[in-house]
Amino acid sequence: MAFENISTDDFFPLFKQTLADSFKVDSFFMHAPYHDFEKMDMGLRRMVWGEYSTNSPIFSIAEDSPYRIVVLESTLGFYNMIISLTADEEPDLIGIMPFRTEPINQANINRIMKENGIAPQHTSTMSHFYLSLPVVELNDLILTIEHLITFFFPAFADHRRICQLQIRKARPQSQRRTLS
Fold first, then answer.
1. Please, what's the b/e burial string for 7-16 (b: 16 or more CB within 10 A of its CB; e: otherwise)?
2. pLDDT tens digits for range 24-49
3. Could you tell me if 116 and 77 are in contact, meaning their C-beta atoms sit under 8 angstroms apart?
4. Cα 28 to Cα 11: distance, rounded to the nearest angstrom
5. pLDDT tens for each residue of 68-88
6. How does DSSP classify residue 121?
7. 121 or 42: which leads in pLDDT
8. Is the distance from CB of 152 to CB of 3 less than 8 angstroms?
9. Which residue, 48, 46, 26, is CA-closest to 126?
10. How far is CA 139 from CA 101, 118, 142, 143, 162, in A?
11. Buried (b) or exposed (e) across 112-128, using 16+ Cβ within 10 A?
12. Three-state SS for 159?
């Protein structure tokens, strides 16, 4: 049984509360035109990297198929998700706020900062950010999302695709590493 006549606007509060209660993750809902993608990481990337480009295809997630669950793995050591909820040309999107898949300690935070060229003056902010993130079993989260969406939007089950993308700061040409 499904509630095929429910709107995405009516569905989202139930979705948000279910994920918050079950996994302690926050989420947000967007209609096109999409704005404020910075809320995906609570503005952390912009704060520590300044102006940056990820060269990420997240803005075109529904071009080749609707109903996607895109898992975004940041080189900053956390995950986000974007879910295209409708088959529209500009689909309704759900964003899943940052979470981790394993606990973190200060040594790992320092390593992440070093690997990403983050100045030591951000140590306190980075520690607060990482230590506040929920730790989630990724497969359980994806399965819960799939079941919840499919119950209300059955077409999602027939067409969904799960993708994983890595989000990293695009380096200037002079700083890019080459593999030999």
1. ebeebbeebb
2. 999 998 887 766 666 665 566 556 65
3. no
4. 12
5. 888 888 888 889 888 888 878
6. G
7. 121
8. yes
9. 48
10. 10, 30, 5, 6, 11
11. bbeebebeeeeeeebbe
12. helix
